[in-house]
Amino acid sequence: MPHQLNARVEACYQLAEAFFKRRFPRPEVSLKLRGQKAGVAHLDENLLRFNPQLYRENSEDFLRQTVAHEVAHLIAHQVFGPHIRAHGEEWQLVMRGVYELTPNRCHSYAITRRPRSCFVYRCKCADGEFDFSAQRHALVGKGRRYVCRRCKGTLSFTGEKREG
After folding, report:
1. What value does the mean pLDDT take over residues 74-101?
2. Are 50 and 30 in contact (CB under 8 A)?
């Protein structure tokens, strides 16, 4: 776990404790998040997950804004209870009042998408090719059947895989 990330989480907690004049249990922090989200707060587990790629590519803003954003979710949940809106006024209060940050709901980091594999399927009538995602291809391997809308024949894997 990068030292700066943990240090920023701790600093956010100390600011919240000074503001609310109470102690908060520290969360578990994980760098096991992929995809488009920069961070996720798991309220009931007191867990923060961060995207390591977006952290590496945007470290300064990530430490300042994203870490505070996710910690604010946990703080708002613990102060105001479980029935608040995710980005509602309580969370905004924490962002503005405690961290003195603009309560932005979403980040604007550039997302680099991984190339996706597609698996080529055909039917009996050869009415063209059908590109299946890796997930759909795996379902076929588990027994799921897909049929051609025109001839109602079962689509079958050609053995061809393309990067898309």
Report:
1. 97
2. yes
